[in-house]
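Quick illustration for those who missed Monday's session on complexes.
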Amino acid sequence: MGMIENFIAGIPKAELHLHIEGTFEPELMFEIARRNNLQLKYNSIEDLKLAYNFNNLQEFLDIYYSGADVLLEEQDFYDLTWAYLQKIHSQNVLHTEIFFDPQTHSLRGVPFSKVITGIHRALEDGQTKLGISSRLILSILRHLSEESAFQTIDDALEYKSWITAIGLDSSEKGHPPSKFQRIFEKVLEEGFLTVAHAGEEGPPEYVWEALNLLQVSRIDHGNRSLEDHTLVTELAMRKIPLTVCPLSNLKLKVVNDMTIHPLAEMLDKGLMATVNSDDPAYFGGYVNENYLAVAYALNLSKEQIVQLATNSFIASFLEEKKKLLMIEKVQHYYLSE
Ligand code: ADE
Ligand code: ZN
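Prediction with zinc ion bound:
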């Protein structure tokens, strides 16, 4: 390993933008399909991986949802989540905030209770066996109706203490945050925090809507915010975190080349940017590979890596005392390296 690789591998960090269904590695997908007596559309792991060639968000989502279709039992959700936790444990991720998409499963007849119990049980084991703290974010599929979203929130209320925030994901174009204004008003009243994917493929106007109508604590992606100077000023002034996903952006052609990825510009403009993996099984890397890709392509300094790791804790939903402890760990690592 080179110097910067070692530095990235060892630095304590949090992950804040991770879809648990996006951690479904082909090997586990075939294993779970087999034990559930389901047939995948692909004959082999190699065939499946050949399909991981996306021109945009929608082409990815079609494959991502079909992969998730083999998840049926509580144990499937446990195994999926546990595999992810073991992986990030090896990458010095100390805290993770994961999205799950209950509608992907409830529409196939898999009850909400099985999905959340499997994930939650693995997260508890992540804390006790690996020392990884976590938060769970329920994400609403924006291509579906407001009615379906209300049903999902109803299901979630029974498990309120396991869920920290409500998010918004899936096909962005044509599905603005305003479509879910009433949903987010309800969940804010219920005491949930809110986040939303915005400005990945959609225009800066969608980021404004996420801020003003959904009262989000963070923007997921947010790349296209840079097209609007007033918006950049607002995000910087309010220290609204952006959960940026470099390898995802490259694979979904949100950016055409990593050397022109906007992360460096975001940091230069004083934005609270963080580095995350989004759907690591599909985009070719977990969080460390994402740090490394931008470090190489944008020639990031050690100090910028430290800034990104520090931001990951500042931007997290950890309690303030724990945040400070984690930030001290990052500083200690920096000074000892
Ligand atoms: N669901 C999983 N990954 C996503 C992404 N990058 N954008 C929108 N929805 C998603
Ligand atoms: Zn995402």
